[in-house]
Amino acid sequence: MKLAVKDETLGMWLGVVGVAMFAVTLPMTRLATGTQDAPQLSPWFVTLGRAALAGVLSAIFLLATRSPRPAAHQWKPLAFAVLGNAIGFPLLLAYALRVVTASHAAVVTALLPLVTAAVAALVLHQRARLGFWLCAIAGSLLVVAFSVLRASQSGHGFGFEWADLLLLGAVIAASIGYIYGAQVTPSLGAERVICWVCVMALPFTLPVALALWPQQPVATASWLGFVYVGTFSMWIGFFAWYRGLALGGALRVSQTQLLQPFLSILASIPLLGEPLDMVTLGFAVAVVATVVIGKRLSQPQDNKARVVYRGDIQPD
Fold it and tell me: Is the pTM of this model over 0.85?
């Protein structure tokens, strides 16, 4: 009994560590790409380079652990995970973060757990309660209101910033990747899913990343941001996250991801010098509240199938 309690406690702390690593992805990506006025590494290089770095580390891990190759039926879901998690999400995020602040992006990407549950309901034909869909709509409207407010305040008129559409696309891409990754997680093993995703992408990501290697001088801070997203965001973070889910229970530990937008906002203060904006923080609280309520209502009505959450399946 004591051992089980210790495992649950350790699992919870590992979950917090994983979420903290993922939270720093936003400011570190912005640090790597720079801004439109002061660009550093290109979004394409950051996307493919971080996946290539994680791919090399993953290949070493798979060889060292003598991991078996995926079965024939597992390659297709893994391919969708590659498109969504290794390419789609980081690429759209990198372009968006050249325009908007990391704190701004944290509010929009706070919808990720809710969108993942919605994609699971649609793709896996699971039936969620009406209350869940109402929460999904409420959370989306909050993000729309926040984006319109920010566009108006920055002098872009009453409407979306194009970067907000990129962030929404990134959320959808990640959600699709998570769902297909979930299909092979039980049989392949959670920690190996992200490794195989990165290794599968390696024949494309490595040569293209080398071809896109920057020719102009790049700030040291930008290189550090790149190394972080390739090593921690794309790889090490998942080891802590998956191990935490296994020890502490996916349902319990996955709740720690609700800390992610707030940790992103806080990390942006020392790393990027962004101010603590109370409006941004308020919208983040409101969006997370809809996620909390929505996750409580996302249990299928017939109790025969569960909606899959980001915390159950994640390979960001």
Answer: no
